[in-house]
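ugh ok fine here u go
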Amino acid sequence: MKILQMRHRLLTGMLLVLALGLSACATTKRLDGEQPEANVSSEKTEARKRASIRMQLAIDYYQQGQQKVALEELRQALLISPDLIDAYSVRGLIYMDMGEKQLAEDNFLHALKLSPGNPDIENNYGWFLCLNGREKQGLAYLDKIIKDPAYTTPGKALNNAGLCSLRLKDVVNAERYFLQGLREDPANPAINANLAKILYDRGEYTQARFYINRVLKFDVLAADVLWLAIKIEKKLGDEAAVSGLSTQLRRRHPNSKEFAQFQRGVFNE
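structure:
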């Protein structure tokens, strides 16, 4: 079964929000020519700010597909602040996209060593394991954070767990994860699209339309999402909808394999 996936950085929702967690310290007097504690703390605070700015630049470049530039920004960030935990996790994601499996895993594990039990990092590492033939290990990480009441974005882990289950051809559990994910985050486009794909494959076209229509409300639509919507409407016999969606597919993704399939009239590949 082909698994419907948006770009990894959108599907898994793995983009990081920078939280500096900076605190002020009391001023102390200079003793024997030593630098005041407040000044030392201020220097560390400024260094961490500069490192975090570098990391945000890295995330921006990563989103734009400029992986090598993103890696250089992360290298600079870690030179400034070697304990910047999220930088290792982001670097793991980039290496994962580049197919550098060992480097990706090394960075995820180092991030977890610095911050054991961090649910955002465990989500990233769990998805990495799922993508690299270690689905059961990946699901163990994902299930752990799904059950963590302190984890504020369980929809991400639930979507990843659903996709991981599909890789094991476990459609029943995949659907369960996606439905649970929608209870947590009803508007999540990736979960809605993935559930629509399951329903389409099962021949439940009206239900599939319900979920894919939620995705179509978003302006940024991947080629596979539009193609799935076209196939659903084709099955339901709505040629006007097929025409409108195919126009979008041609305009947004003229060189995609999905548009090539539409042009050939191949709706069942």
